[in-house]
Amino acid sequence: MDRASVGIMAFLAVSAAAVTVAYAQKDAAQDSIEAYREALQDGNPAELYEASGEELWKTPAGPKAASLERCDLGLGPGVVKGAYAQLPRHFADTDRVQDLESRLLTCMQTLQGKDPKPYIEASFTAPPKEEMNALAAYISGQSKDAPIAVTLAHPKEQAMYELGKRMFNYQGGPYDFACATCHGQEGTRIRLQELPYIPSAKGAAAGWSSWPAYRVSAGQMWSMQWRLNDCFRQQRFPEPVYTSDATIALSMYMAATANGATMKTPGIKR
């Protein structure tokens, strides 16, 4: 074997070793992250928000001095158990596809006589949104361990799913970003954190099933609407209108793609 061949073989051997080390480091980092997440599960502060949300659900409020206990989340008035696992869905009374938070605003308006505008316009750290986050924690917790079962039977559900899929892949903004930029390919990560591949059932479940969630780094409970708002911020897009069709469409795309997975709400994040 001549000297050039020996050099090439040595280079290939070093390269292979470097790749092996890189993958070993990647696996070790992922194992550490998973161990960290597992440790966080004990004493999830989301439980406090669940208790607060249950109180808000059952306490009379608004001009009509009524509770939300007759709110129909899709399984009949007052039925909370398993309802979140089947949202978003089409509601005949509004003729809209609604997620949990948009449906809650409908119930607040019709049952309690509340104006939804202050809830829509408030910042996510303001009291109106804190109410919504607590209610989302409580209601989602009633679907923990339930299978995700989002239907696309109604034409408007199908249309919302297709809109969500298009939005997921739409590139725009000053950095020409799309949701798919981060979540449209397998095996990507940011800050050592693996990014779920949303077009797959497994990835969609990872991105959907544990929200709402308590964010340890922020010390806050985040609903899915808040999570999507943060995605828009990171893409440098204009802030979406709270409970708008744009946000519901993305939720519908993720939830329907995750069908069959188990709900793990409310979750806990780094």
From TrEMBL:
It holds the Pfam family SoxA-TsdA_cyt-c. Heme c 1 binds at residues 71, 107. GO terms for biological process: sulfur oxidation. Transmembrane segments: none annotated. Substrate binds at residue 227. PROSITE patterns: CYTC (PS51007). InterPro entries: Cyt_c-like_dom (IPR009056), Cyt_c-like_dom_sf (IPR036909), SoxA (IPR025710). Residues 159-270 form the Cytochrome c domain. Keywords: Electron transport, Heme, Iron, Metal-binding, Periplasm, Signal, Transferase, Transport. GO terms for molecular function: electron transfer activity; heme binding; metal ion binding; oxidoreductase activity, acting on a sulfur group of donors, cytochrome as acceptor; transferase activity. It is found in: Periplasm. Heterodimer of SoxA and SoxX. This is SoxAX cytochrome complex subunit A. The lineage of its organism: Bacteria, Pseudomonadati, Pseudomonadota, Alphaproteobacteria, Rhodospirillales. The gene is soxA.
